[in-house]
Each structure stands twice: as structure tokens, then as C-alpha cells.
Amino acid sequence: MTARPFEQQIAMQSRAKHGVSSRALSILLAVLADAGLAWLLFRQHIISSPQEIEPFWVKQFIAFAVYSALQLWTLAYQTGRGDEFAATIDKVFAASPAVVTALIQMYWIGHDSAATLSWRQHVVSAIWAAFSIADFFSTDITNQRLRMRQLNLSPPAD
User: Fold this and answer.
1) Contact at 8 Å (CB) between 104 and 41?
2) Where are the domains of the chain?
């Protein structure tokens, strides 16, 4: 028997099974979201006909639903496991869709006008940005739990 807590033994066993962590998946998802937002916001005339409106919203809804479900799953699966460096990187990438949205919106304001983009692009980017801010704070809370466990300051388990 080892002197390590039971939670650490389980974490080590689960890491041995696969090489990709949920934090790595979370970071990859954020990078893909950044690329998708950049692609969306740099296309000035995204919808040119009324027949393209419904497919646009369906694509955006599916992309957001998949992204948010996977991000929430990786956050729930992680809950303070791993090292603090990876947790900090995950936290930074959690906010990246909001940062990308803000930078591209500022680009359009400086380059031409915010009215260059359609209201649909503004709505979609605002939704992604709002979720990324919530994901940032959720990840921050998870990181605080991680630090508390590493310093043995966490409250006793019930």
C-alpha cells in the first residue's frame, strides 16, 4: 500500500490509459473556436440570399452546442486534477474566444465600420464571447480547487 491519497492513485491510473488529457481537449476546442470565429467575422457578406439564413443558424447552433457540451464535459471531468501549469494554460485558452471576438470587432471598427458585419455575426460572436467568459471563471474556480488540494488546504470530504 502506498501513502498517497486514493484520489491521486485513481488520477495516475486514468492518465496511464490514454495520452490526451481533458485539458488538452479543452485547449484544442478553444483554438478551433477561435479559428471559427475569425473565419465568421472576416467574411463580410456571409449571407447573400434569404435561402442561406436558416442553414447559417443551424450551423451556428450545432457548432455552439457541440463546443459548449464538450467544454463543460472537460471541465466537469477535470475538477482540479493535473498540474497547475496546465490548469493555467487551460484558463487562458478558455477566455480566448472572447479575446478573439473583441480583437476582430475592433479591427472592423478601425478598418471600416462595425456595420460592415451583419447583426447575425455580432449576435453569434457575442454568444461565444459570453460563454467563454463563463468558461474562464469556471476554469478559474477549478484551478483554485487544484491549488487548495496541492497545498492540503481543501476542506475534508464528507
Assistant:
1) yes
2) 61-153
For every residue of 41-62, DSSP letters joined together read HT-TT---SGGGHHHHHHHHHH
What are the pLDDT digits (tens) for 27-44? 888 999 999 888 888 876
Residues with Cβ within 8 Å of residue 129, at least 6 apart in sequence = 97, 98, 101, 102
User: How many CB atoms sit inside 10 A of residue 40's CB?
Assistant: 21
d(CA 83, CA 6): 17
144: part of which helix (H) or strand (E)? Answer: helix 119-150
Alpha-carbon span 158 to 142, nearest angstrom: 19
Q: Among residues 91, 96, 99, 51, which one has the least CA distance to residue 74?
A: 91
Separation CA 151–CA 153 (nearest Å): 5
Task: Please report, as a single letter, which amino acid is at residue 132.
Answer: S
Give the mean model confidence (pLDDT) for residues 99-103.
91
CA 23 to chain centre: 10
For residues 33 and 125, what is the distance between their CA atoms, to the nearest angstrom?
10
> Is-contact 89 27, C-beta < 8 A?
yes
Question: Can you tell me the distance from the alpha carbon of 61 to that of 129, in angstroms, rounded to the nearest whole number?
Answer: 14
